[in-house]
Amino acid sequence: MNYNVLIIGSGLGGLECGALLAKRGLKVLVLEGSNQPGGCMQSFRRGGMHYDTGLHYVGGLAPGQTMHHAFEELGLLDLPWQRMDDAFDHVIIGGRHFAFHQGYEAFVEGLAKDFPHQREALQSYVQRLQNITADDMDVCAYDYLRQTFSDELLVNVVSAAAMKTELRRESLPLFNFAHTCSSYIESSWRLKGDGNLLVNKLISTIEEVGGEVKTNSKVVRLVEADGRIANVICADGQSYEAEYFISDIHPAELCHLLEGCQAVRKAFRRRMTSGENTCGMFTAQFKLKPGALRYFAHNVFVYDKPNVWTMTEDNDPVKGVMISARVPEDDSDELRQIDLLTPMPWYECEPWIETKVGRRGDDYKAFCQKKTEQCVALAEQYIPNLHEMVEQCYTSTPLTYRDYLGSPEGGAFGLRKDCRTSMLSFHSVGTPLSNLLLTGQSIILPGIEGVTMTAFETCSKII
Question: Rounded CA gap, 224 and 261, in Å?
C-alpha cells in the first residue's frame, strides 16, 4: 500500500505530525524501530505502577496561551490535565527558598518580595520572555541575564527551573532559554495518568482515519530516485513507498540511512553529523510507602549553592536536583510516586559505553546507588527523611536513553544549540531532498513546546 506521508520514528514530534496530517485526510504511516511508540513521552510499568520517561509538566494550556491552540488542534486538551499550584515551581538555593507563581505579573511580584531592588529588572525580564524572536538565537542567555539582573543570586534563581534544558554559560541561546521558561509561567499543568495517555491519544487520531503506526519496524535505508526519496527499507526487508517522508529520528542517525543518496551533499551530512549532543539526565524514580507523604502540586528544584550554570562542569557529587510528584490517580492526597532528576554528562558513562541494558555489572549498580543517595540528600532539604519513605527505586542514565530511545550519547535535549554559531546549530525542517522533511527536538527547540512548534512547521510544508 502506498501512503501520502511516511514518518520515521514515533516520538512526540513524529506522532504529532502524523495526527495533524491524518486529520487533514492524508494517508499516514509511522514506523517505529522499537517495540513501544512514544519516545520520551512513553511510560513503562514496574512493580504494578507506570513510570514516565520524560513527561513531567506542560505549560501554557489555558485559553489564549502558548500551547492551547496547538493541543486543541491535536486533540490533547481532552486529556485529564490538572492545573498545578499557584506557586508551581519552588527553588531552594543554599538553603534559601523562593517560588515561581503562575502569571507574569504574579511571577514578578513573588520574586520582588525577595529581591525588591530588582523589581524593574524582573518586569523587563518577563517582557522579554513574551517577545522572543528568531534574532534571540544569536543572544547568549547567560550574558543577557547578567546584564539584566545586578544580583547574582537572582540570576541563579530565575535559571533554576531551566534544568529541563542544558544550561551552558558560553553558548545557550536566549531563544531556547526563554521558550523553556515562558509557557510554564503562563500556566503549569500535570497529567493525571502516565505519558502513554498522550501517546495513545495521538495514535488513535492517526488510526481513526485509516493511518497506521507500526512498531518493531526499524528503517535501515532510504532509497533516492531523481532527487526524491522513493521508498524506505526496514530491517525485516519490508519496503514502503510514500509521497512525503518525515524523519523524527536524530539527524546523525538519518544521515546513516541516506548513504548513497547523491542529492545529499557533504556539507549537509557534515552539518547533521558534527553537531554536539546535549547532556543526558540521571533519574531516580521512587515508589513510596503507603501514607508516607502527601501529594504536592508543584515542582521543587534544590541546589546546594548558587551554581546553576556551572553544575555540570564538575558533576560529582550531584549539585542540583528536580523533584517531581506524580498526580494520584485514586483521587486521594496520598503520594505514591516521585521522580528525582539531575543532569548527567556523557563522560560519566564512559566505563559502560560498550554495555547493554541489564549487563552493565556491579560497578554500574554501585554508581547508580551512589548517584541516587546524592539526589536524595539534596531532596531531603525539602522532604525530610525521604530515604525512609522509599519502597522501591528504579534508575536510568544517558545509557538507558541511548539503548531504549536511540538517542546518541543519551542526549536528553537533542543536538546542542549555540548562540555563537546559530546558523549551523539551528536547522530548517527542509532537506536537499524535496520530499524529505525533519521534525523533533534536534531541529529548532527541545521540550514539549519546542517539539510541538516544530511539528506544526514541518506539516506546513506539506499541507
Answer: 6
List strand residue ranges (DSSP E) for 319-446, in order.
320-325, 337-344, 390-396, 436-438
The residues with which 231 forms a beta bridge, in sequence order, are 223, 241
Written as one letter, the residue type at 270 is: R
Tens digits of residue pLDDT in 117-135: 999 999 999 999 999 999 9
Cβ contact 43:66 at 8 Å: no
Local confidence band at 431 (pLDDT 50, 70, 90 cut-offs) = very high
Strands (DSSP E) found in 163-293: 188-191, 212-214, 219-225, 228-234, 239-247, 280-288
Strand 280-288, strand 212-214: pairing: unpaired
Q: Please state, as a whole number, how many other Cβ atoms lie within 10 Å of the Cβ of residue 43.
A: 20
With left for phi above 0 and alpha for psi between -120 and 50, is residue 339 left, alpha or beta? beta
224: cell is: 533516492
Cross-strand bridge partners of residue 322 = 301, 341
Q: How large is the C-alpha radius of gyration of the chain?
A: 22
